# Entry
Amino acid sequence: MRGLINYGTHCSINSIVQYLYETRELQDLILCVDEREYQAHNTVAMNLKALIQEMKEKERSPCDPGFLIDSMSVYSGISFNIQEDSDLVFTCIINALADGHRTGKGIRKLWDIEYEENMRCLSCNTVRSVLKNANTIPLSIEGTLPNELQEYMKQYADSTRTACDWHCTNCHRETQLEIMSKVVSLPPVVCMKLGRVRNIGRDTAHIVKIGTRFAFPETVDLKYIMKEPKASVSTIYELYAVVAHCGTHYRGHYTAYLRCGNRGWYLADDAQVSVCSWADVKNTYEAGSNLYHGVAYMLMYHRKSSSH
# Structure
């Protein structure tokens, strides 16, 4: 593995790039990306392709992600001169890839979760179903849901949300809406985002970071969140990347823990890459009392192949 140069505020980008680099499902597809698939202003795909190719070279010096970062700024209109959240970086890159044809859209589908949302009016019981797509699964670490991922998935499927001030077009009343979601199909790669940011302000925003413990296993079964699991498609997923954050929500540092095939776990900290262990990864379950202790923000699982 090779590190990535940090120009001062780009640790979140470096962590996401390392995660994408270790996504085995992406390896062959990114090499097929053609600049003719994209409009002239969108060079994110080509710069990501070039960077991943460079990272594959057997050199020890860190790679320069500068061209990729510049193209991300042009594409998104976001200046990365200040640190952005890792999930925003991930979304920017995936959306830029999907704006192309064929290969780019195929890459987006690696993370494409399709789910059915059933909305029931609590006044007339009319139910409306809508199919939607997402590229992440949000994980709440507050409330009554379990703080362990496998148990969380078992209860997450039965959770409901109620939206107030709903105007029903059937009974024409201002009422409440009960919303239940079930996953229809799971992609080869699943990205989960832990809800570690909360606004506790009233008149003015006051954002705090939540360091509460949330445990996650190396292997998880996602059948519980599916509407009708297909026997022919595995719902067993293996953890291969964790993006962690230390510090406060306003100022901190991102790193990435990566499982590189049979070689075990590594820690990618910008230009530095070092061997670590599963015990080190488990230390990101919670922030503890140390402000500079990394806590998990994003979890990346891919479908376990039958050969494993």
About this structure: The chain has a mean pLDDT of 87. Residues 161 and 179 are 5 Å apart (CA to CA). The first helix runs from residue 11 to 21.
